[in-house]
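Handout, page 2. Input:
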Amino acid sequence: MNKIHQFIAVLGLVLVSLVGCGFEPRAGGDANPARVAEMQQTLRDLWVGHIFWVRHVVSNIATNEPEERDAAEKEVVENTKQIASTITPFYGEAASEKLYRLLDTNIGAVREYSEATAAGNKQQQDAALAHLASNADEIGDFLSHLNPYLHKDIVQGLIATHGAHHVLQINQYKAKEYAPLGATWPMMRQHVYVIADTLTTALVKQFPSKFS
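Output:
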């Protein structure tokens, strides 16, 4: 488990360095820095909400608490809709709905892995990991076609690492490794900040007038 944790941490650092070269959040052209900061904070808050509620879902799967899980699942759905809606002013409803479906599929794969882990089903775990990998590719392809400043390989890497963080967290819940869980959360939070900042910067570069 420690080797997995170290691998994800190193991969995350590599992605941060790559993204930082060309995707540092900043205003460009006619963009108002205050508007840019507002968008950045909105996306950061939504993505932190995502990992918060998904964590509650997987922890309730691990402890077999269906009522609490159902409540968390509803929050996950609402949060996912909110994340997807942030691109509506730029790309329209159809693109927003597509992003929602892709994010929902990502969460479904995380849920699938969590349930397989709780049941000790290695075959289903492997299937869930394959679903996470293909979904990361699909999200990278979708966003890179929407925005020329979102390079597919970087987006794919960010989403793949994000999925790996969920997998690590699920494995830690299964093994009752509660001390490492405490270290996993800030790593996940920092990574979704990178996702949010990458999206923000790409939107500002493509649509500076919308941030004036």
